[in-house]
Specification:
With 468 residues, the chain is of the alpha/beta class. Helix content is 45%, strand content 19%. It contains 17 helices and 18 strands. Strand 14, helix 11 and strand 15 form a beta-alpha-beta unit. Helix 6 crosses helix 7 and helix 8 packs across helix 13. The radius of gyration is 23 Å and the shape is globular. It starts with a strand and ends in a 9-residue tail after the last helix. It binds 6-O-phosphono-beta-D-fructofuranose. 6-O-phosphono-beta-D-fructofuranose binds next to strand 1.
Length: 468
């Protein structure tokens, strides 16, 4: 496994020693058994500058930290990954910044990841590279180790070529990805956007979702497949968490702490401009203004977990969201009744499960989102068949889950207001019918299945362990 982050958080303990703790996440939960069985290694960044650490064992996996300097974090992670690629791949909701120094840092860091993976992989091994931070790794790794079977999964959208071609290094990125044998995307639309980019920007012949790579001195000819593998969550885990008596008690306590309103609405997002938080709050504020909802009887809880706080666009977003929340609360809140409960924190899964149970309406209003796993967590937590999911059309989840959720276009504020009101007043029978439908889709389709189906296709690629 090669991913930007390791599945652990590092901290310095009381004696000044470096310590680490497992960070919970669907991806690692799904891959842990596979990794343990295969004697696997996970190559990734520790999340802190200049942190050098020897590879170490954690729950049967070898974790291999890649060291990044403060300058590299600025150029590769905050710069190229999150201020160039992230906005470009999310429909240029924020303007992408193109800096040649950031590109240089991206290349350098991708090369380091490729070298670390090459040093760990056994002959003929399967290597799975993740996400937009590491798009050059497949080609770099293949050059170092032509014997490997290499898969790549893009967790975020892949943009239409008309936007992608803004990128000065577009061809290098496409060629980087084509180092893989299998390239997975969240939606069929992302896979076709990629194949269109291959056709527009390279001479490689394509047929449907298969791209033919000619042979050269170092590597023989081969085929690359681009296809959709929609990701999921550890559904069982969320379902079980939400059935626990203490979590159900906590959900009741949350509602009581909110003043036992008739309707609790919930938004849970990383504080990111792709999530449509401002659009949601604008719609909510207008509903209060129009008198279609009352702060005394309806409450919005907005969890906005801190993210990428050194990137300017994220700092601006935080300002905007906080001013907006302050304005709505100033206008419509009363003593004992905030209109919006805004929480700039992240919470452990157990508290999230309680929040999901406490919420009558879940608002997912992303302007563009690769999948949106919060929507799936909400569904997995609602074995009581309560709750209504309002879901943006611009999420990968909408492609999979329609027609169960109430779909919204977050740019259409009036349309979104009508849907929010409809969600708040939905007939309980209709609620149950929709949630039953949604659970049928989500519960059988967990992250373990996702990784099995990706790895199933990847391991079916003929072994190349005779190539050195
Ligand atoms: O959705 C893409 C992604 O990189 C996820 O893998 C990750 O959980 C999230 O964004 C947060 O990213 P970061 O590593 O920048 O905090």
């Amino acid at each position: 496994m090669v991913a930007n982050r390791l599945p652990v958080d590092f901290a310095v303990d009381d004696e000044g020693n470096l310590d680490w703790q497992r960070s919970p996440g669907g991806l690692v939960t799904a891959l842990e058994p596979v990794m343990q069985q295969a004697d696997g290694a996970w190559v990734g960044w520790s999340g802190a500058p200049d942190l050098a650490h020897e590879p170490f064992e954690a729950d049967g996996m070898l974790l291999v930290p890649v060291t990044l300097s403060a300058d590299e974090i600025e150029g590769y992670y905050e710069g190229f990954a999150n201020d160039t690629l992230w906005p470009l791949y999310h429909d240029v909701i924020a303007p992408p910044t193109y800096h040649r120094q950031w590109w240089d840092a991206y290349k350098r860091v991708n090369q380091r990841f490729a070298e670390a993976a090459a040093a760990q992989a056994a002959r003929g091994a399967v290597v799975w590279v993740h996400d937009y931070q590491l798009q050059l790794v497949p080609k770099m790794l293949r050059e170092l180790r032509p014997d490997l079977r290499i898969g790549f999964f893009d967790h975020i959208p892949f943009p239409p070529v008309e936007l992608f071609q803004q990128l000065p290094w577009r061809k290098r990125i496409v060629e980087g990805l084509l180092g893989a044998d299998l390239i997975g995307f969240q939606r069929g639309g992302d896979a076709s956007n990629f194949v269109r980019a291959v056709r527009r920007l390279t001479d490689h012949p394509t047929r449907g979702s298969v791209i033919s790579m000619g042979s050269d001195d170092a590597t023989p000819g081969r085929r690359v497949r681009a296809a959709a593998f929609p990701i999921s969550i550890d559904t069982q885990h969320f379902d079980e968490l939400a059935r626990k008596p203490e979590v159900q008690a906590r959900a009741k306590e949350i509602r009581a702490d909110l003043g036992d309103p008739d309707v609790v609405m919930l938004g849970v997002d990383r504080l990111d401009y792709t999530k449509g938080i401002r659009h949601r709050i604008k719609a909510y504020g207008e509903l209060l203004q129009d008198g279609r909802i009352e702060a005394a009887t309806t409450t919005l809880v907005q969890v906005a977990s801190p993210s990428r706080e050194n990137v300017g666009a994220y700092q601006e977003l935080r300002e905007h969201v906080e001013v907006l929340v302050g304005r709505v609360n100033g206008e419509f809140g009363e003593i004992g009744h905030s209109a919006i409960h805004y929480l700039h924190h992240s919470y452990p899964p157990v508290e999230m499960a309680a929040l999901y149970l406490a919420a009558d309406v879940m608002l997912v209003t992303s302007l563009r989102d690769g999948m949106n796993l919060v929507a799936k967590e909400y569904i997995a937590a609602r074995s009581d068949l309560g709750g209504v999911l309002v879901l943006s059309e611009f999420t990968g989840a909408a492609d999979q889950l329609a027609p169960g959720p109430l779909l919204v276009n977050p740019h259409d504020i009036d349309g979104m207001k009508d849907i929010i009101v409809a969600a708040a007043h939905m007939d309980p029978k209709e609620k149950r019918r929709r949630m039953r439908n949604l659970r049928r889709k989500v519960m059988g389709d967990d992250v373990a299945k996702w990784s099995q189906s990706f790895l199933g296709v990847l391991t079916a690629v003929p072994a190349r362990d005779s190539y050195v």
